[in-house]
C-alpha cells in the first residue's frame, strides 16, 4: 500500500507545476533555470527520479526540502507532535460529547435528547471548519479578548483549534450518528430483550451488554478517521497558524516543495495503516467471536 501511495504521490505532485517557477524570478534566463533544474535533480526522467527516491526511502531518507534546505524527516518530526496534540485533544472532546449524546438518542428515541443529538450532528456535519474557526476567533479573541487567536503556546492556545476541529470536524457528527443507529439495532436484538426479562438493571443492559456490541462500527470510524484528521487539519492549522503537519503540507504546496509533500503523504498513509491495524486488534476484544489465526 505504501509503495502504491508513494508512486501516486510522486506522479501527482509533479502535475502541480515546476518549483523553479516559484524559486526563480520571472526574468530568470534559460541557463539559470537549467542550472537550478540540475541542482534539484529535475533534469532527469521521472522514472529515474522515482527510482532514486525509492532508493533513498529504503534508507529512511525522504530527501531535502526545496524551500528550507532541511531534511524532510526532521521537518515531519518537528511538526508531527503538534498535529498529534491537536488531533488527540479534538478527538477526546468529540468522543466525550458524542458518546453520551449517541446513547441518549438511542435509548430515548423521538425525545428531546434524540432531536438534540441529531441536530448537533447535523450542525457539526454542515458547518465548514474554516468558517467556525473564524467565528470563534472573532467571539473569544477579538470581541471578549479571552483567548489567543492562534499560534502554538500554552494550554490557552490549544482551546480554540480544539473546539473547531472537535465540534465541526465531522468526528462528533459521525460518532453520534453511528453510535445512535448501532445502539438502536443492538437494543432491539433478542439477547437484550432476554436480559431485560431476566431483570437485569437497565443501566447494565445499556452500558455493559448494549454499548460493547454497538462499538464495532464506531471503532472502525474513529480508527479510520484518525488518519484523515492528521492530514485534514490543514484548514484549522492554517486559520489558527498552528505549526502542524497540515500547515506544513499547505506551505509545501504553495512552494511546490516536492519532497515535503511526498513525505507528508507517506507519513499520513503510514499513520492510517497503523490505526487500521489497531482497529482490527480491538475487534477481537470487543467481539469474542472474532479471532485471528487458525
Features:
single chain, 294 residues, mainly alpha, 14 helices, 76% helix, elongated
Which class do the helix and strand fractions yield?
mainly alpha
- The topology string of helices and strands comes to HHHHHHHHHHHHHH
Distance between the termini: 25 Å
Q: Detail the poorly predicted runs.
A: none
Bulk shape: elongated
Number of helices: 14
Helix coverage percent of residues? Answer: over 70%
How many β-strand stretches?
Answer: 0
Largest sheet: none
Beta strand % = under 5%
Tell me what the structure shows.
- With 294 residues, this protein is an all-alpha fold.
- It contains 14 helices and no strands.
- Helix 5 (72-107) packs across helix 9.
